[in-house]
Amino acid sequence: MPEIDTDYLVVGAGASGLPFVDTLVSLTDARVVIVDREARPGGHWLHAYPFVRLHQPSANYGVASRPLGTDRIDTDGPNAGFYERASAPEIVEHFGAALDDLVASGRVTFLGSHEYRGADADGHHVQSLETGETTTIRARRLVDATFTAADIPSRHTPPMAVDDDVRFASPNALPDHVDAPAFTILGAGKTAMDSCVWLLEQGIDPGRIRWVKPREAWLFERSFVQPLDQVAGYMQMQAHWVSASARSTDGRDFARRLGDVGVLVRVDEDVEGEVFRGAIISQYELDRLRTIENVVRGRRVHRITSTHLVLDDGEISAVPGEVHVDCTAHGVPYAPTRPTFAEDRITIGYVTLGIVPWSAATVAAVEAIHVSDDEKNRLTPAMCWTGSTADVIGMLHAGMSGLSARAADPAVGAWNETCRLNPAAGAMAKAGSDTAIGDALTTIITEIGPALENLQRLAGQPASS
Ligand SMILES: Cc1cc2nc3c(=O)[nH]c(=O)nc-3n(C[C@H](O)[C@H](O)[C@H](O)COP(=O)(O)OP(=O)(O)OC[C@H]3O[C@@H](n4cnc5c(N)ncnc54)[C@H](O)[C@@H]3O)c2cc1C
Fold it and tell me: Of 382, 369, 374, nearest to 28 (Cα)?
């Protein structure tokens, strides 16, 4: 049985695993083995629907050591005026090239098509999905880079019964169904919105689209998540975030306050936003989504037959030959809190506001720079995402505590300031010449203390010593 001795065994070669390894290898002389069930790196992006793009700019996604895209400003379509957003093939290519660099360093081994099978006194065991052979790996630390693994439509079991004669598709197959007489889009999240906008862009009349949307979502308005030359918007978002945190009475109140200043938006402004998953949308997309008038709100579908849909409280009729598009996969999953650093394991969860690769690279930088796990956990408190607006306070508290602690740590703060995955990178240098950035920084500095106190009180956290 093959055996390998290494410093880190990383399970998962997606948007968590590769940015973690990339930063770790750049800051230390560690040796790393990466295992993944897939033959190639890229995680969920290997199976994404064809019209998907990053929610956020490519400028802050991928591994820190190499660019993703060229920081182009798009001139038309849903992203006009904003920094480019990579397609799934572009993201997969980026991660493939990043892995090639890591392997070429001589310190990283990739075991593709291998599954992690657990550990015993001999070490960790991974099994080849091609040959069945098991390799034993002795590592100083196990890195779980599967903790935020995405639940995506093409690998998802629909949560409703579907009769055999029903035309039912994941968004991956939607391009094969554009000839359908009508479309029912199932789901409240960004995948459903992407599917609706894509159909409208193909010239489908909005009257042919029905949207079954159990809950309304709060979404980031795209101009507030731009980096580089548009970073002033990002800094204003941070300032509003801190201000609202200092004054909010609960998660819903926090979201409404950000809604009042335009940072968070809803497709339907008359409906309470119950969902908060960090998705991003532009005014262009909102305008198109609002042309869909046939919206079934507040109810879930339990069964689909060729003649009707069975909902929580009754039935609605189906259009003969219509296609039902399953957009009910959660995408970003519910992530319970688990300490980032615990004995011989590192768990890569969210430690930054969104941007999985930035979180993963931050965990790696903290691992490289500090020795004590207590100190590392103080710098990377894990944010718990339930996806529900009502639960947002605990996540805000963890995120803001970590951000403040890292900013006050000279080595981690310096690394973060030059990391391309950090959307705020470079903002400090512009504060003197850009009033919007300067004003935002003043608000952040003035209100961060009251914000942390209020969030700690609301989250029921014990007072810090
Ligand atoms: C459509 C969509 C758009 C998104 N856009 C953004 C965005 O713009 N910005 C952002 O920050 N986030 C975005 N997200 C969320 C984010 O990309 C995902 O949550 C994140 O990519 C998860 O990365 P991951 O590496 O943790 O998981 P995955 O990409 O799911 O990768 C996990 C990997 O682990 C492997 N694995 C799991 N278990 C084992 C095992 N036992 N043995 C071996 N291998 C295993 C899997 O094969 C997989 O390759 C988006 C998500 C979706 C669905």
Answer: 369
Task: Provide CATH 3.50.50.60 ranges for the chain.
Answer: 3-150+334-392, 153-239+250-326
Using the mean position of ligand 1's atoms as its centre, give its distance from the Cα of residue 195 in Å.
Answer: 20
Check if 356 has its Cβ closer than 6 Å to any atom of ligand 1.
yes
Residue nearest to atom 11 of ligand 1 (CA): 355
Mean pLDDT lowest among 282-291, 330-339, 445-454: 330-339
Cβ of 43 less than 6 Å from ligand 1: yes
Integer Rg of the chain from CA: 23
- Choice from 10, 21, 36 to test ligand 1 binding pocket (greatest atom count within 8 A of CB): 36
Q: How far apart are CA 10 and CA 388, in angstroms?
A: 30
Ligand 1: which residue has its CA nearest to atom 41? Answer: 116
Superfamily of segment(s) 153-239+250-326: FAD/NAD(P)-binding domain (3.50.50.60)
Can you tell me the distance from the alpha carbon of 408 to that of 403, in angstroms, rounded to the nearest whole number?
A: 9
Rounded Cα distance between 212 and 17, Å, is 35
CA distance 207 to 300: 21
The fold adopted by the segment(s) 3-150+334-392 is FAD/NAD(P)-binding domain (3.50.50)
- Candidate of 47, 117, 146, 195 to mutate for ligand 1, largest count of ligand atoms within 8 Å of Cβ: 146
pLDDT over 60 at 461, yes or no:
no
Q: Is 153 in the pocket of ligand 1 (CB under 6 A)?
A: no
pLDDT band at 465 (very low <50, low <70, confident <90, very high): very low
pTM: 0.95
Distance from C-alpha of 368 to C-alpha of 265, rounded to nearest angstrom? 38
List all residues 6 or more positions away from 104 whose beta carbon is below 8 Å from its beta carbon: none
Tell me: the pLDDT tens digits for 400-420?
Answer: 999 999 999 999 999 999 999
Within 13 Å, how many C-alpha atoms sit on residue 174's CB side? Answer: 30
Any atom of ligand 1 within 6 Å of the Cβ of 36: yes
pLDDT at 447 over 70: yes
Token pair for 436: 């919007």
User: Is the Cβ atom of 93 under 6 angstroms away from ligand 1?
Assistant: no
